[in-house]
Write a structure and sequence with these properties.
- This protein is α/β, with parallel strands linked by helices.
- It has a single domain, classed as Rossmann fold (3-Layer(aba) Sandwich), CATH 3.40.50.
- 28% of the residues lie in helices and 27% in strands.
- It has helices at residues 9-20, 39-49, 84-89, 92-96, 141-149; strands at residues 2-6, 28-33, 64-68, 72-77, 101-105, 119-125, 133-138, 154-155.
- An eight-stranded mixed β-sheet has the order 3-4-5-2-6-7-1-8, covered by helices on one side.
- Helix 1 packs across helix 2 (39-49).
- The longest helix is centred in the first third of the chain and has 12 residues, at 9-20.
- The radius of gyration is 14 Å and the shape is globular.
- The structure holds adenosine-5'-triphosphate and magnesium ion.
- Residues 6-9, 11-12, 33, 35-41, 58, 105, 131, 133 line the site of adenosine-5'-triphosphate.
- Adenosine-5'-triphosphate is lined by residues 6-9, 11-12, 33, 35-41, 58, 105, 131, 133.
């Protein structure tokens, strides 16, 4: 596990950019956190780090957005469609087990389908400070080491 705190949306974005440098083709990043915890902000940072030039927005209504950058990037949002069965019918496994990078908001809803090696990121807003986010990362050792070498997070 890795722990870190960001103090602004810009810092969360910057963390996403750094984290992106640790990603490889086929990786899945599962983001879990309440409304406005910063999932989309972090994903925007990841996409910037992966040279996505198009607009990155939450695919709340479209369920999934696809961007091209260093990899094919699939931005999935399970807020409106939370049923695993429906996602399986929509063919989510093709993305989860494909060669792109898949970034998932409200990923707890797909938990049972996520591949081994999924990078889990938990975001929590601090009650006393509206601009503070606690971010915990649970990933393979090599990814956690890579992130901490980027200057983010304390290894636990
Ligand atoms: N440290 C921080 N990190 C990220 N966002 C922050 C931070 N401090 C304040 N914010 C604000 O919180 C909001 C986060 O919104 P964002 O869309 O990234 O959240 P989300 O988790 O994707 O929400 P949703 O569940 O609606 O998809 C933004 O308005 C952002 O400016
Ligand atoms: Mg969002």
């Amino acid at each position: 596990m890795l722990d870190l705190v960001t103090h602004s949306a810009e810092e969360t974005h910057k963390f996403g950019e750094k984290l992106s440098k640790c990603l490889k083709a086929g990786d899945v990043v599962a983001l879990v956190g309440d409304l406005a915890s910063g999932k989309t902000t972090l994903i925007k940072g990841i996409c910037e780090g992966l040279n996505v030039r198009s607009q990155v927005e939450s695919p709340t209504f479209t369920l999934m957005n696809e961007y091209s950058g260093k990899y094919s990037i699939y931005h999935v949002d399970c807020y409106r469609e939370w049923r695993l069965e429906e996602w399986l019918k929509l063919g989510i496994n093709e993305y989860l087990y494909g060669n792109g990078v898949t970034l998932i908001e409200w990923a707890d809803r797909l938990d049972e389908a996520l591949p081994n090696g999924t990078i889990h990121i938990f975001l929590n807003q601090e009650i006393e400070d509206e601009n503070c986010r606690y971010i915990a990362i649970d990933a393979k050792d090599e990814i956690e080491k890579c992130i901490s070498l980027m200057g983010f997070g304390n290894l636990r």
